[in-house]
Write a structure and sequence with these properties.
The protein is mainly alpha-helical. The chain is built from three helices and two strands; from the N terminus they run ααβαβ. The chain has one domain (4-69). It has helices spanning 4-11, 20-34, 46-59, and strands spanning 40-41, 68-69. Strands 1-2 form a two-stranded antiparallel ribbon. It starts with a helix and ends with a strand.
């Protein structure tokens, strides 16, 4: 079970530098991860996708994740 605090540590980010909006987005991302609702990639594990998406939230860009499988 992933927590927001664990994710922040894995990202190597100072928790004091994270805005309230980013924290809300990270919380939502972790909830989706814990419930198995993450996007899937044929090249990366669920945790690697989680970290790439979290980095995108923190650094303000859309992550490019190769091999994403989009479901209809």
């Amino acid at each position: 079970m992933m927590t927001v605090e664990t994710l922040i540590i894995k990202l190597g980010v100072n928790p004091k530098e994270i805005s309230k909006a980013e924290l809300i987005l990270l919380t939502s991302l972790v909830k989706r991860y814990n419930h198995g609702y993450m996007r899937r990639s044929i090249y990366f594990s669920y945790e690697e996708v989680l970290i790439k998406e979290a980095e995108g939230i923190i650094h303000g860009y859309l992550p490019e994740i190769d091999g994403i499988i989009y479901e209809d």
